[in-house]
Amino acid sequence: MNKTLETEELDSTSRREFFKTTASVGTIAATSMLVPNTVLADDENIMHHVKWGTTLGHEVNKFPYGMPPLYEHNVVRRTSPLMSSAGDMHAAISMTPLADLSGIIVPNGLHFTRTHNGVAQVDPNKFRLMIHGLVEKPIVLTLDELKRYPSESRILFMECPSNSAAEWKGPQFGSLQMAKGMMSCAEWTGVRLKTILDELGLKPEAKWMLAEGSDGSEMSRTVPVEKVLDDAMIVWGQNGEALRNEQGYPVRLMLPGWEANLCVKWLKRLEFGDKPWYAKEETSKYTALTASGKAIQHFYANEVNSVITYPCPERDWTDLKKGDVVEIEGLAWTGHGTIKGVDISFDGGKNWVEAQLKGLVLPKAWTRFSYMHKYDGKPMLLQSRSYDDSDNVQPTVNQEKAVVGVEGVYHRNAIMTWKITDMGKVSNVQVRS
Amino acid sequence: MFKLDRKLTTIGMVLVAGVTFSVMTACAAESKDGAKESKKAAAETSNSATVGVYASKPGALDGGVTYPRENGIYTAYRYNTQSTKGVNPGRAATANEIKAWDLDALPDGSGLPEGEGSVELGDELYEAQCAVCHGEFGAGGSGYPQLSGGNMDKDENGVIITLKNQRVYGSTDAPKRTVGTYWPVATTLFTYIRDAMPYAHPKSLSNDETYAITAYILAQNEIEIDGEEMDDEYVLNKEKLAKVVLPNRDGFYPNIDGPNAIEDIRAFYADRAKNIGAGTRCMTDCKDPGGPDGKTPAAVMEIKYEMSDVTPPYAYDKTLPPKKKDENAHPGKEAYEANCVLCHKTDAMGAPAVGDKAAWDIVMKKGLDKVYHNTIHGINGMPAKGGTSLPDDKIKQMVDYMIEASK
User: Fold this and answer.
1) Which of A356, B134, B227, B361 is the most buried (most CB within 10 A)?
2) Which residues, if any, are the signal sequence (chain B) (predicted)?
3) Contact B183, B246 (CB under 8 A)
4) What is the pLDDT of residue B49?
């Protein structure tokens, strides 16, 4: 952020001068944090041949599995000791760099990751899936056998219910990535559980399904059969390739819109029963303690939510000058259905305007929103507020706090606020009583 | 509008002074327009939610909508409408296979294995295998979950009082979520320890050892079983574990037990505004309806203690990463790949292919000096220096590499 610091020190006049001289290389100014203070009018990148135009590129198959450009090496998942136990990174979380993404698909290497006993590496030849309990025909499947079921693909977001958990008592992280990056969105391919159960014969007394992982934590959760028969899937494909180890290779459970913890990774066993199991991750954890002293259990869907991804602390407005027209962009999502719209406030929530949705608008998927803004150089408190087709409107911090308190840890969906200074710097704040 | 005063920021937790917040204070009471707006918005929502391919139905268990699969379309997705009947991969699970994997236990104790273990043995095992992370006596302290030691006193409604703690940046105690104060069910403790602990060696404990450690942790939480205190000699088994009623057994909602469970859950999520918090779609002159008295001005809270310790550290520049030097790489390799590889990778161009031992044996019969000379001055179809303008010593390095790689 060197450049931010430098421009901070410039007075507004020299700042205007700065942008006048660099206007001809606007794309560079917009994408690089390292613009030299003076760029000559006759840009050497134009006036001379560039290196990559005068040398041989590398061979077509130098990387049999393609890699991102080396220049993008800072676009990575990040983690923090706060996202772990005692700094141990086996039961920890790494966050998606939301500010660097475009569209609604997260590349597999950047999908956020949460593990409870490290990232398991399952041998696909030894993988077995058992489905039993209250079914007429209990079965075991190899991976190849599982994949013989007819498949469907859906674009779905995955969000850890503790996304923004650090922010209940106040803002703590100075970046979009760490404040909201415990989520991703991908195209997932697999079989609907209903397709399998139609064949196995689910007994009428089956009310619940236990999903169990095969990793060291034997992560297990209880799922109501109603969800299983609606849109639950067992998935093996992630954006066209096999799931990454971090996402549960070779297969994970997918419960569209519901907390990612329920979408058990490294799936091993599904058992149908008539009572809930009270697994560890649905009792001691993943229950939201409210101010009443009682806790919400079986907290399923990730609520209607949104965040502005540009500007944000990582990609601020220090390179804008007054009068520039700029696109405000963000992501909205809801586990309750489909995003209907997003409102934007420049004054911390007093007045709102409607943003526009763009791109694919799919149920239980990230949805991009956009608003064209004429930058006037004044400070602002920028917020977004989404609403969905299930009559949910994203709450303010105070509205959520009034019902849940500040110790809930999970399912935080309060409106976020970026404070933007007159220099265009962006920081994470909260509007609250 | 408002003005941000940078000098006054972030000293306190709440930053009323940081903003002259006319915008927020102006809406101390819910504006009528705002209320109307949000009702209108809600009505719009309901209407359009039933239109088109997204035709949604309210009433999913989680309070959301369900989208029917009709006419080969599920929301925006098409799917194959042909019958899947007869797709029947896999084979029947054997009784032994089910027995091997079906190890879970329900709160009523069904599914628990035979076996037993004493508090005393549990103490030994705990000290040896658990205390390093969970602290002496389960008291926590090293960053891993605390297992015992919370205050279990209840209020007149049967709620554990300290679970109502609401922290304001360290000025009050956190609610302690230990086995004794928070966990609803003791069978979870047994299965979790057996399946997932010790952290680095999960599934290494026998059933007897697991009963012992479970007994020790319950004893540290002063749990009584059938009115009996758990002293050192107390031996836990499946019958006794099934009888444990943890203090916070009723501390969770919605109800998920019994014949009404599903309807109770549905009712809970149907009223999300009341139960989990909801916003309103006010568009102009909105007050923040969550303020404690509707009059307190909303304020801007800035980061007080920034968690900037992230890995890898924040960096956003688009520069090349520091080059990893391959210590073993031949000094001529890089230049070869930039200049010679086109013709010398295969013999298709008539040049000796790198890696082709026989071809290079023939070349080397001329002697190294001659090979250098030919390279620098050109031979057959190859121009002088292979068409480059590199210095002679660099050319020689490349030749050395090609010879080396063809041995």
Assistant:
1) B134
2) 1-28
3) yes
4) 39
Q: What share of chain B is helix, strand, coil (3-state, %, to 5)?
A: 35, 10, 55
- What CATH superfamily classification does B333-404 receive? Cytochrome c-like domain (1.10.760.10)
Q: B164 CB near a chain A CB, below 8 Å?
A: yes
Q: Where in chain A is the domain with CATH 2.60.40.650?
A: 305-429
CA-nearest residue to A210 within chain B is B104
Query: Which residues of chain A does B76 touch, with a Cβ-Cβ cutoff of 8 Å?
Result: 360, 362
pLDDT tens digits, A164-204 = 999 999 999 999 999 999 999 999 999 999 999 999 999 99
pLDDT, position B336: 86
How many CB pairs lie under 8 A apart between chains A and B?
439
Quick one: how far is CA B332 from the chain centroid?
46
Please list every residue in chain A whose beta carbon sits closer than 8 Å to the beta carbon of residue B319. Answer: 34, 71
Question: Could you please report the per-residue DSSP string of A229-262?
Answer: HHT-EEEEEETTEEPPGGGTTT-EEE-TTB-GGG
Backbone φ, ψ for residue B399 (5° rounding): -60, -45
Query: In terms of CATH architecture, what is A305-429?
Result: Sandwich (2.60)
Mean pLDDT on B379-406? 87
The CA distance from A165 to the nearest CA of chain B, in Å, is 13
Q: Specify the 3-state DSSP secondary structure of A272.
A: strand
Cα–Cα distance measured from residue A422 to residue B63, given in angstroms and rounded to the nearest whole number: 42
Contact B300 A348 (CB under 8 A): yes
Domain B98-243: assigned CATH number = 1.10.760.10
Q: Do B276 and A148 touch (CB under 8 A)?
A: no
**Token pair listed for A154:** 């859906």
A345 touches A352 (CB < 8 A): yes
Is A171 in Cβ contact with B202 (below 8 Å)? no
Biggest CA pair distance of chain A: 78
Q: For domain A93-277, which CATH number applies: 3.20.20.110, 3.40.1190.10, 3.90.420.10, 3.40.980.10?
A: 3.90.420.10
* Mutation for testing the B interface, residue in A298, A310, A315, A367 having most B CBs under 10 Å: A298
Q: Locate B323 and state its tokens.
A: 């080059």
Alpha helices in A33-122 (DSSP H): 44-47
Residues of A in contact with B92 (CB under 8 A): 137-140
**Contact between chains at A178 and B165 (C-beta distance less than 8 A):** no
Closest CA relative to residue A314, chosen from B12, B322, B310: B310
Q: What is the pLDDT of residues A317-363, one digit of tens each?
A: 999 999 999 999 999 999 999 999 999 999 999 999 999 999 999 99
The single-letter code of the amino acid at B229 is E
8 Å CB contact of A293 and B281: no
Least Cα separation, residue A198 to chain B (angstroms): 8
Q: Which two tokens stand for residue B14?
A: 């709440």
Look up tokens 């990575």; give the residue. A76
What's the pLDDT at A1? 32
Considering only CB atoms, A347 lies closest to which of B2, B275, B341, namely B2
E strand spans, A103-151:
113-115, 129-133, 139-141
List the single residue in B63, B106, B203 with the smallest CB-CB distance to A390.
B63
Identify any residues that bridge with A252 across adjacent strands, giving them in sequence order: A235
Segment A32-52 shows an average pLDDT of 74
Total Cβ atoms within 10 A of residue A410:
23
The answer to whether B316 and A35 are in contact (CB under 8 A) is no
Q: What is the mean pLDDT of chain A?
A: 91
Chosen for mutation from A9, A54, A90, A284 (greatest number of chain B CBs closer than 10 Å) is A284
Buried residues in B64-88 as b, exposed as e (16+ CB within 10 A): bbbbebeeebbbbbeeeeeebeeee
